[in-house]
Design brief:
Rossmann fold, 6 helices, alpha/beta, 26% strand, 3 domains, 10-stranded mixed sheet, elongated, 3-stranded mixed sheet
Length: 247
């Protein structure tokens, strides 16, 4: 090879080309990091309803390492998702130096178990909230199922003048709830099977059974729907008598 002039020329040209490419690549890498390409405008596209604007700004200041070309989008999104109430984040670059930040916030539907919240999609999240919310409880990973039942049961109870304040799914699959009306709170045991049918059966006879007791000034504390063709009710002051049953 060392005696082959053509081969030597070709090798020299190849090495020179590689050296030029390496120099150009190095120059490009240095150029894209120049301050001239730093973001000058960072804009949150919509007002924040629950997330702290100051917290979001602090995260942006600490995580916007790099320039228009070198910003680590994944790291920036992950850091913003750690801000309470932030559900999803979208980042969009606009030439030459603008970054748009779109934040999708959680909407609280209910409290979940001991110290979390859950949104209408069944997503569990941690955030501080002082307002009144229903209480949902269930095994880990079952929040979407409990939320779906909450919606269905709410639609059945609302026309009866009852607000669903609590819904519980036990590890064994048994459902129970609490509903608040004009005269107080009422616990309802649904059991594990045919829960939609059982609650619908209660709703169909509610005006002339539980509703009648309430109109008569009786407070119904507990309703057990785990009967094949009826239900039982516990009424304070009638504890010495057989439990009232309604078909």
């Amino acid at each position: 090879m060392w005696d082959d002039a053509k081969a030597l020329n070709a090798a020299a040209i190849t090495l020179a080309a590689l050296a030029i490419v390496a120099l150009l690549a190095g120059a490009v890498l240095r150029a894209v990091r120049l301050p001239i390409f730093a973001f000058r405008d960072v804009v949150v596209t919509a007002p924040l309803a629950r997330a702290s604007a100051a917290h979001v700004e602090a995260v942006l200041r600490s995580e916007l390492h790099g320039t228009f070309f070198t910003l680590d989008f994944d790291a920036a999104r992950a850091a913003l998702r750690d801000v309470p109430w932030v559900k999803q984040v979208a980042l969009r670059r606009q030439w030459p130096a603008r970054l748009e930040v779109t934040i999708d916030e959680y909407v609280p539907l209910a409290r979940w178990n001991d110290n979390a919240l859950v949104d209408p999609d069944g997503a569990v999240f941690a955030a501080g909230y002082d307002g009144e919310l229903p209480q949902l409880e269930g095994p880990d990973g079952r929040a979407p199922d409990v939320v779906a039942r909450y919606r269905a049961f709410h639609d059945v109870l609302a026309p009866l003048g009852l607000a669903l304040t609590s819904l519980t799914l036990t590890p064994r699959g048994s459902w129970s709830l609490k509903a608040a009306g004009a005269t107080g709170s009422m616990a309802i045991a649904l059991g594990r099977a045919d829960v939609d049918v059982r609650l619908a059966r209660l709703a169909s006879v509610y005006p002339r059974t539980i509703g009648a007791l309430l109109r008569a000034g009786r407070n119904v504390e507990y309703v057990d729907l785990r009967y094949r063709a009826g239900f039982a009710a516990r009424v304070p002051g009638l504890r010495d008598k057989p439990a009232r049953k309604a078909a």
